[in-house]
Amino acid sequence: MTRLLEDDALRLLRKAGISVPDFETVKTVDAAVDATQWLGGRAVLKALIPAGGRGKAGAVRLVESPNEAGAFAALLLGQEILHYPVTELLVSAPVDIAREVFVSFAFDSETKKPVLLFSANGGVDIETILDKHPASLIRQPLSLLTGFSKTDARALTEAAGLSKTAAKNVAKVLVVLWQVFIEREAELLEVNPLVLAPDSLVTAPTAVLNMDEQAMARHDDLSVATNRIRTNGWRPLTELELEMREIDATDIGSSIRFNEFPEGDIALMVSGGGTGMSALDAIYKAGGRPACTMDITPGQIEEKTYLATKAIVSRPNVKGLLAGSPFINFIPVDIKVRGTMRALEELKIDPTKFPIVFRFDGPNIDVAKECAAALPGICFLDAATPMEEAAVEIVKRTYGIDAL
Predict the structure, then answer these.
(1) Is the Cβ–Cβ distance between 123 and 193 less than 8 Å?
(2) Residue 165 near residue 200 (C-beta atoms within 8 A)
(3) Which of 72, 92, 112 represents a domain boundary (last residue)?
(4) Exposed, middle or buried: residue 220 (CB in 10 Å: 0-12, 13-18, 19+)?
(5) Residue 9 falls within a domain, yes or no?
(6) CA 199 to CA 201: how far, in whole Å?
């Protein structure tokens, strides 16, 4: 997942025709003071980080003067808030608020189809509001084929209890938000609050836009925006995660999904989705400390596997390796093993000192075993051994004690 910073999300909405407040992105205290002066002396300052809950974390404030803006900017810049370093601030014009509504376009995890969540009661305390008034949340499944029309939007806003004028104006914005959500192949587009002014005009003072990582190649105009802060969902990417992104971009075809746990010491390179998660769980249960997870999709994967193994095993904290996958008809096992073995041999890894457990199943398993035999000491398990038992084995070998 790639989450745009708020200023880039607002620029997209403005480009689509939605009203957003005047704003500037600043990196220094002096720039925050100047931006507040430009906005008339009052402004809303926000830490530009890809995380929710900034207000409750003290990273959002309405300031009443340029001097107050400078003091707050000095407080925020250089701090770490919600796991993210604050290097930039959004300075935006305040908006007149008569009513706040909640809008979220997302994909339902069960149906895998888009859904619109809407409430005429929005704001920073939306969770509390919906907990007390669950009926105020409208959940409307949407179709990629039939779309979301002005008529659909008007029916929804009227059902939510908005006045005639407000319902009409909000409906227009909902249709545009839907178009942005679909055209950008987003995973989430949320505006909370979407603000109605006293004259019922609608403004989006904030926005959350999460992009589909696999779709980014089709949106070159967002490359600069998505590279400003790379995230794995709740924190910045580590150096190794960034390196893995570069490796993954070396060619088209197979894709790497990778997460690092810097405090761990057992590298986990197990493909197969659920199989990898089972191995991760088994390592934890056995008392192990996973250093990473890595899954790679089918394709010509030898080169990527080689580069990824080399990057992972080179980390000084990594003391052992579990690599494997379940049965996959269209990837001969020896292709995966060759990539890993090339890296291990190049790094001069001694499996008697650096424990390695392979657990594979699939075509050419015997060829793969012969390939692995080039480094004596590798424990090569096949379909006769469950992946969970392979996970226990790597824990035993890495720590030199019986697993818990």
Answers:
(1) yes
(2) yes
(3) 92
(4) exposed
(5) no
(6) 6
**Cα–Cα distance between 20 and 44 in angstroms, integer?**
13
Q: Look at residue 7 and tell me if it is in a domain.
A: no
Please report whether residue 12 resides in a domain.
no
Are residue 247 and residue 307 in the same domain, yes or no?
Answer: yes
Render pLDDT for 270-284 as a digit per residue (tens, 0 to 9).
998 789 999 999 999
Same domain, 119 and 213: yes
Question: Which residues of the chain fall short of a pLDDT of 70?
Answer: 1, 227, 229-230, 252-253, 328-330, 401-404
Specify the pLDDT at position 328: 66
Query: CATH code at 315?
Result: 3.40.50.261
| Tokens describing residue 232 | 């794995």
Q: pTM here?
A: 0.72
Choose among 100, 93, 2, 85: nearest CA to 45: 93
The reply to whether 16 falls in a domain is no
CATH number at residue 177: 3.30.470.20
Q: Where are the alpha helices (DSSP H) in 137-198?
A: 150-159, 164-183
Distance between CA 270 and CA 382 in Å, rounded?
Answer: 13
Distance (Å, whole) CA 226 – CA 10: 14
pLDDT of 403 reads 45
Place of tokens 């959350």: 208
Domain that residue 382 falls in: 237-399
How far, in Å, CA of 166 to CA of 140, rounded? 19
Structure tokens belonging to residue 132: 């007390």
Give how many domains the chain has, as a whole number: 3
